[in-house]
Each structure stands twice: as C-alpha cells, then as structure tokens.
Amino acid sequence: MKLLMRDMIQDLLTTERTLSQLYLHAQHTCANEGLRQTVDECLAEVNQVQTRLFNEMEQRGWLKLPMAGRQEIESAIIHWEQQIERHPELAEEE
Q1: Cβ–Cβ < 8 Å for 48, 85
Q2: Which Pfam families match (predicted)?
Q3: How do residues 57-92 score in pLDDT, each as one tens digit?
C-alpha cells in the first residue's frame, strides 16, 4: 500500500494536534515548576510543527477552510454574550 504525501501530512497533523492536547493537559496538572517549564517547551515545539504542517497543507490546496457566514458569526456572538451574562467571571476585567 502506497501512502500519498497528502495522507502522510494529514496523519502528521493529526498526531501533532493530539500531542498538543496531551502536553496542554500535562501543563495544567503539573505540580513541579521545572517539569512544567519542560512541558511548556515541548508544547511550544509541537505547536510550531503543527502550524508548519497546517500551512503546508493549506498552500498545497489540501486543506480548505469554510468561511463563516454572517448568520454564523452573529450566532456565535450572541451565544458568548449570553454565556457572559450567565457567568460574569468569564468577562475580561477592565
């Protein structure tokens, strides 16, 4: 079975996204500051690789992102305004 370059890059991107989630979880649950800094460095590196893979796929036309319509944007704004009304602690302090 021969894998296409597109499939390999997509698999790499999926792997990097998963690693990013795992490192983020480790960062949030880490009690040791030295270990947390190491995890932060790993997370930053994984995110850089993920960004490069994402950009490569987009440049090759292998990743098409849908544009949100006006209604979808307005719905998202209304949703988050309602969330802030229900949970004022989510609002930014000025």
Answers
A1: no
A2: Coat_F (PF07875)
A3: 999 999 887 888 999 999 999 998 998 888 888 776
pLDDT tens string 22-40: 999 999 999 999 999 999 9
The three state secondary structure string of 33-79 is HHHHHHHHHHHHHHHHHHHHHHHHHHHCCCCCCCCCCHHHHHHHHHH
Asked whether 53 and 9 are in contact (CB, 8 A), the reply is yes
Q: Name residue 60's amino acid.
A: R
What is the rounded end-to-end Cα distance, in angstroms, of the chain? 58
Q: Which of 50, 66, 65, 64 lies closest to 9 in space, CA to CA?
A: 50
The single-letter DSSP state of residue 91 is S
Distances (CA, A) of 15 to 5, 25, 30, 70, 89: 15, 15, 22, 33, 34
SS3 85: helix
